[in-house]
UniProtKB/TrEMBL annotation:
Keyword Nucleus annotated: no
Annotated family: Belongs to the gas vesicle GvpF/GvpL family.
Main location: other
Name the record gives this protein: GvpL/GvpF family gas vesicle protein
Subcellular location: Gas vesicle
Pfam family name, one: GvpL_GvpF
Record keywords, A-Z: Gas vesicle
UniProt key word ATP-binding: no
Originating species: Streptomyces violaceus
Length: 251
């Protein structure tokens, strides 16, 4: 089959085959391309969509981008069940197999070093959301009888919000410290923009944790035990993922 080479990830050779029905970007099944003890997982994609100019235009198309990202992530998820992949950026494309092998050779030391560090480990994501006072209580505010009464109500609302955010900050700080002590490594990411995530509440913790695969069940139990500990705090656990947050410049 002709076409450009779309690269999902670099990993070490793995004995377990990927799912036979797995479909990659543009519907082409992924395959393994071996070079010097490393494997690039690639598939063929049409030049009309993935050469430089059309790819740049497609990246502005939210529907196309969503579909492509879903297919890309599907391959990464499948790889994560059988090996430790280093995911490459969405839209990493080369002219042919030779171009992929040249990239692998140029970055071989970095890939091997990062794979040594991440072997047998996965990433778990933990987010904490603080629900606002309005979301917690459906009761409407009492109408102010005077200007002075209005100012008093505003001061009380401000104080209530400040106390809530302080409580959320203390809870998320303590949770992050406990999870970081259990994990081998952790990363704090910027809080999510609610307009983009569509999640309710204010995101006060957005963190990733590097955990040995063998310890994942214990990590999940540790997170689960904190749910419901503090009213108004919602915890969201995702994973296990390929170790995106810990691959450094290898990705």
């Amino acid at each position: 089959m002709t076409g450009l080479r779309y690269v999902y990830a670099v990993c070490r050779p793995f004995g377990t085959p990927l799912q036979s029905q797995l479909s990659g970007v543009a519907g082409d099944p992924p395959r393994a391309l071996t070079h010097h003890g490393l494997v690039a997982v690639v598939s063929h994609v049409p030049e009309r969509d993935f050469s430089e100019e059309p790819l740049h235009a497609h990246l502005e198309d939210l529907d196309w981008l969503t579909e492509t990202a879903r297919a890309h992530q599907g391959v990464i998820d499948a790889l994560t069940t059988v090996t430790t992949p280093l995911p490459l950026r969405l839209g990493t494309v080369f002219r042919d197999d030779s171009g992929v092998r040249t990239m692998m050779e140029a970055r071989e030391e970095d890939f091997q070093r990062t794979l040594d560090r991440l072997e047998g480990r996965v990433e778990w994501g933990v987010k904490v959301y603080a629900e606002s006072e309005q979301q917690e209580s459906p009761r409407p505010a009492r109408k102010a009888a005077s200007g002075r009464d209005y100012l008093r109500q505003r001061r009380m609302q401000t104080r209530s919000h400040e106390e809530m955010w302080q409580k959320a900050e203390r809870f998320s700080t303590r949770l992050h410290e406990n999870l970081s002590a259990f994990a081998e490594d952790s990363r704090l990411h910027p809080p999510q923009n609610p307009a983009l995530s569509k999640a309710t509440g204010r995101n006060v913790l957005n963190a990733a944790y590097l955990v040995p695969r063998a310890n994942s069940e214990e990590f999940v139990e540790l997170v689960d035990r904190t749910k419901g500990e503090v009213p108004g705090m919602r915890i969201e656990l995702t994973g296990p993922w390929a170790a995106y947050s810990f691959a450094g410049e290898a990705i």
